[in-house]
Structure formats: structure tokens, C-alpha cells
């Protein structure tokens, strides 16, 4: 199965798994399993059926949901990058931030926290907070 087909399959299955009808089917399956307990004398095999089934389903769903989550995150990131790129006065240096090392990302986060704090202070004193302050270049160290 090529990557495109897998992505389509993963997206469709993840979408279906989040529907109320799917939940009801799963709940019905558990209720049916529980109802058969007396028939099978609550045996180890009877318990193993539900344990194995849920483990396998959970294991497979983790990968399917992670695939759709990765695609969604990438699409959102690209949309945000396009908004930054297309906005006059925006800092293109913040494009592709998710690719930076942790310490560089933390420095950007701290700088934006400082800007937010200054903007809130301006609001408290009755000033506007709608300017576009310049970002100081971050050193690569």
C-alpha cells in the first residue's frame, strides 16, 4: 500500500472511529462479551478474548491516529507559515520554528512572552497594543 493510499485509509478510519455509531458498536460488543460470561463460566479464555481484542485494536489505532495527527499538524503549520509569509510586517524568521532546536525555540517563546507582557501593560495604562515591535535577532549560540 503506497503512502497516499495509507494516508487516505488512516484518515477515513480515524474519522469513522470517532463517530457515535462506532462507539455504540464497541459498547455493544463489550456488553455482548460481558453477557456471555456466565455461558463460558468467566473462564480465562473468555477474559483473554476481550483483553487480546482490545489490545490489538488499541495498538493499530495508535498508528492510524498518529498518522492523521501528523498530517493535520503539518497542514496547520504550512497554513500558519503562509499567513506569516503573506502578512506585511510579519517576521519571516518565525517561519518553520518547529524545526529549531529546543533552546532556540525557548528564546523565541521568551521574547514573545515579553512582548505579550508589554502589550498587557500598555492596555492597563490605556494605550493601544496594536503595534508591531521588532524582534531582536537571536544569536545562534
The biggest sheet amounts to: none
Helix fraction, binned, reads 55-70%
Low-confidence segments: none
How far apart the termini lie comes to 44 Å
The residue-averaged pLDDT reads 89
Radius of gyration: 25 Å
| Multimerization status | single chain
Count up the helices. 4
Query: What class would the helix/strand composition place it in?
Result: mainly alpha
SSE arrangement, N to C = HHHH
Give the CA-based shape: elongated
Report the strand count: 0
Name the beta content range. Answer: under 5%
Please give a structural write-up.
- This protein has helices spanning 3-17, 20-35, 44-86, 102-124.
- The chain starts with a helix and ends in a 17-residue tail after the last helix.
- The model has no long low-confidence stretch (mean pLDDT 89).
- Helices cover 69% and strands 0% of the residues.
- The protein is mostly helical and 141 residues long.
- The chain is elongated and about 75 Å long.
- The longest helix is centred in the middle third of the chain and has 43 residues, at 44-86.
Short description:
This protein is mainly α. The chain is 69% helix and 0% strand.
Keywords:
141 residues, mainly alpha
Secondary structure topology:
Blueprint (H helix, E strand, L loop, with lengths): L2 H15 L2 H16 L8 H43 L15 H23 L17
Helix pairs in contact: 1-3
